[in-house]
Specification:
The protein is mainly α and 86 residues long. The chain is built from four helices and no strands. The longest helix is centred in the middle third of the chain and has 24 residues. It is globular.
Amino acid sequence: MSGFILACIWAISANVIAMVHDAPKYRIHWVLARILVLCLPFVIWRVGVDHGAGWMLAALGVAIFQLRLMLNHMGKQAIAKLKEIL
């Protein structure tokens, strides 16, 4: 499967998941969003393999720009859990 097709499928999935309400009874939204974020490095790598480093860097830049708030939140959660363990 082409990297761009995979990226398009990822983007459509992200938009569908974004339409799920963010209410307590719809906790599935955050679970699916985290799964998408975890799949994103593979999608970016696949774009790089199929189309070159320039497109991979462009996809990485867009991903960081679009997901900066969620990545920041997930990073803070990870640091807090590490502090609890240590």
